[in-house]
């Protein structure tokens, strides 16, 4: 495969193959089977921005497959001395076989991929894209509904700055999903993204009313209002806590509806929802391991056996 910077780097068939491989690797991710497919390979985890699930799931994925991990953070590194991203990537290219990078600047992942000859996986670039999150999101949806075709998906919250929603929306419409975008006016999905989605024939509805979307939803994808993305704290305070999903809101929901969240959550989902059969966000976080396992094997040219044992 090579680099993964946006979901446009993957065809639908490639996405399906990655999800199939991820499903086969589930017992490896759970530690039930040891399968050292990536023994001798080294992953560089390049995190210029805070992360818990993405960084740890990449590390778990690599180690479960027998590989090694170099963890990098800009704090305490030569970046603090003024080293450029280009020079940092040149250095890393001599130490690793594959790079996962998270950076606060949109476009940094593509710049890094253009700078070196190793496969580069975008683990989030500012308010841009987060394609490896999209893969685990698609895996979670398919795991619950046994298909990606023709689902009604509701994306809620920070759709302006939310890179998870940006990447996921593009992928879902390729599989025929109907999208409902729920946000306050100041956090609506960027118009250019909505235009891209509808240009391909997708059915997209924008609203500020979460309650009115629940009954018809197959997936409700909650997102955090990202304080760190706001240039003005007063603007953040106007929308903080605007949506909170509670158990009482779910009375009319489909039995098969699932609730997802890329995490961390602040107050978007009340803790009482955790014990309902709709809640999938912690399973979703675990699925980051199998999705990134499949991705690491693919970009390093390692085949996942048809039968894992």
Cα gyration radius (Å): 19 Å
Shape call: globular
CATH superfamily of the largest domain: Aspartate/ornithine carbamoyltransferase
Helix content: 25-40%
Q: What's the structural blueprint in terms of helices and strands?
A:
Layout: H1 12-24, H2 26-29, E1 42-47, H3 53-64, E2 68-73, H4 85-93, E3 98-103, H5 108-115, E4 120-125, H6 131-145, E5 152-156, H7 163-174, E6 178-182, H8 191-199, E7 204-207, E8 219-222, H9 233-239, E9 258-260, H10 281-299
Parallel strand pairs: 1-2, 1-3, 3-4, 5-6, 5-8, 6-7, 8-9
Helix pairs in contact: 1-6, 1-10, 3-10, 4-5, 6-7, 6-10
Outline the structure in words.
Helices cover 35% and strands 15% of the residues. With 309 residues, it is α/β, with parallel strands linked by helices. The chain has 2 domains: 7-130 and 288-299, Aspartate/ornithine carbamoyltransferase (Rossmann fold), CATH 3.40.50; 132-285, Aspartate/ornithine carbamoyltransferase (Rossmann fold). The strands form 2 sheets. A 5-stranded parallel β-sheet has the order 7-6-5-8-9. It has a 4-stranded parallel β-sheet with strand order 2-1-3-4, sandwiched between helices. The mean pLDDT is 91.
Short description:
With 309 residues, the chain is an alpha/beta fold. The chain has 10 helices and 9 strands.
Key features of this structure:
309 residues; alpha/beta; Rossmann fold; 2 domains; five-stranded parallel beta sheet; four-stranded parallel beta sheet; 10 helices; 9 strands; 15% strand; globular
């Amino acid at each position: 495969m090579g680099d993964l910077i946006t979901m446009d780097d993957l065809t639908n068939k490639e996405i399906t193959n990655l999800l199939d491989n991820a499903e086969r690797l589930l017992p490896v991710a759970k530690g039930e089977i040891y399968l050292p497919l990536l023994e001798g390979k080294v992953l560089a985890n390049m995190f210029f921005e805070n992360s818990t699930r993405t960084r740890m799931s990449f590390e778990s994925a690599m180690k479960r497959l027998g590989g090694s991990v170099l963890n990098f953070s800009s704090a305490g590194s030569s970046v603090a001395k003024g080293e450029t991203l280009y020079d940092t990537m040149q250095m890393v290219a001599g130490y690793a076989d594959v790079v996962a990078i998270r950076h606060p600047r949109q476009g940094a992942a593509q710049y890094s991929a253009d700078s070196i000859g190793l496969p580069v996986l975008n683990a989030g670039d500012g308010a841009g894209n987060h394609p490896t999150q999209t893969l685990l999101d698609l895996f979670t949806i398919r795991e619950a509904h046994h298909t990606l075709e023709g689902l009604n998906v509701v994306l809620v919250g920070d759709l302006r700055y939310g890179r998870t929603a940006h990447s996921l929306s593009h992928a879902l419409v390729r599989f025929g999903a109907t999208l409902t975008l729920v946000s306050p006016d100041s956090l609506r999905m960027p118009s250019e993204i909505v235009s891209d989605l509808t240009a391909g024939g997708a059915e997209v509805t924008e609203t500020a009313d979460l309650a009115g979307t629940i009954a018809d939803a197959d997936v409700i994808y909650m997102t955090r209002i990202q304080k760190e993305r706001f240039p003005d704290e007063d603007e953040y305070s106007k929308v903080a806590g605007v949506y909170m999903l509670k158990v009482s809101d779910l009375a009319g929901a489909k039995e098969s509806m699932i609730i997802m969240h890329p995490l961390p959550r602040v107050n978007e989902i009340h803790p009482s929802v955790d014990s309902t059969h709709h809640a999938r966000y912690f399973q979703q976080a675990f699925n980051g391991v199998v999705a990134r396992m499949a991705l690491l094997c693919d970009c390093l040219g390692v085949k996942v056996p048809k039968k894992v044992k």
